[in-house]
Amino acid sequence: MKSLPVKNNDGQFQRGWKFGTFKATQVGVFLGGRLQKPRQISGWQIQSPDGCLRFSEGNWQQFVPFANLILDNYGIATRIS
User: Fold this and answer.
1) What is the value of pTM for the model shown?
2) Helix extents (H) in 1-81
3) What is the C-alpha to C-alpha distance for residues 31 and 53, in angstroms, rounded to an integer?
4) CA dihedral 51, 23, 75, 79 (to 10 degrees)
5) Of 17, 21, 53, 58, whose CB count within 10 A is highest?
6) How far is residue 77's CA from residue 62's CA, in Å, rounded to a whole number?
7) Separation between Cα atoms, residue 72 and residue 51, nearest integer Å
8) 69: closest CA among 49, 52, 51, 54?
9) What's the rounded Cα separation, in Å, for the pair 67 and 76?
10) Rounded CA gap, 71 and 67, in Å?
């Protein structure tokens, strides 16, 4: 994962934010009362300084609003696009 330089609402840099991609196999999903076959998923992840990983399946355009919401919840002024 790569470091993500972000500033808080006071304009000070906050270290420890990282983002990157992921690939995984999703198993054990029930849909319509039936167990579905495993499927490959991929997307983006963001890690906060406290080590919490959050995942968003899909492409970059789908990830941006998700990541900005996470940053906003931590009081970060930086917005990614």
Assistant:
1) 0.78
2) 60-73
3) 26
4) 140
5) 17
6) 20
7) 17
8) 54
9) 11
10) 6
CB 19 within 8 A of CB 4: yes
> How much of the chain is helix, strand and coil, in % rounded to 5?
15, 45, 40
For residue 9, which amino acid is it? N
Round to whole Å and give the CA distance between 49 and 27. 29
Length of the chain: 81
Question: Is residue 80 within 8 Å of residue 61, measured between CB atoms?
Answer: no
Say yes or no to pLDDT of 77 above 90: no
Q: Per residue in 5-57, pLDDT tens? A: 888 888 888 889 999 999 999 888 888 888 888 989 999 999 999 999 999 99
Over the stretch 48-71, which tens digit does the pLDDT of each residue have?
999 999 999 999 999 999 999 999
